[in-house]
Amino acid sequence: MLLSQYLSCVNQKNMPPADFLSALRSLREARMSSDFSYEEVPAPRNIAPFSAALSLQTRENSDHPTHGRFLVFYNPEWVEEWQGNFRIVMMISAVTDDEIAADPVIKQVAWDWLHEALDASGAGASNLSGTVTIESSQSFGALRPQAPVSNIEMRASWTPASTDLAPHLEAWGILATFCEGDEPTSPLYPVRDLRSTHHHV
Predict the structure, then answer these.
(1) H or E stretch including 50?
(2) What InterPro entries does the record tag this protein with (predicted)?
(3) Is residue 105 part of a domain?
(4) pLDDT tens, 83-97?
């Protein structure tokens, strides 16, 4: 359940605000691809009084292994920098083809994927910012037999328009599919039913 680790990893001196609990409960209704597994992980505690986090990773062997993090931060007091009380922070990292990594416009294309994912899920977002990083590595010497590896990493944050965060989690899942090199055509299920092999969401 999405509240289990929250109770052990955030400020326990304060009773969780109703808006924050409502936002977390809404996440459990998000419909996500079964190509990935999801689990609750500890969230940073130095950014806001209340926080929660999920991780994502490819379930099966894939040519483009993908993993990511989705974090929710909540401050009962208005945060000027966020222009709100909530802030979403997300990361997606995926192995990609060398040809794609070498494309001079791939960073802009990847950023456009995020906008497309937010639009597709109906997530109302403001104050959107982030980075797209392309990394390539090639082995030498004793490691030369290893094939070159290219990686795309996206980091972004934004302020949600309401406490219904399900569309934002869905956008994160759509973006993960894009970064993996696929179209989001796999069946979707409530994230609460897509448990990892070790933890429950």
Answers:
(1) strand 50-58
(2) DUF3000
(3) yes
(4) 999 999 999 999 988
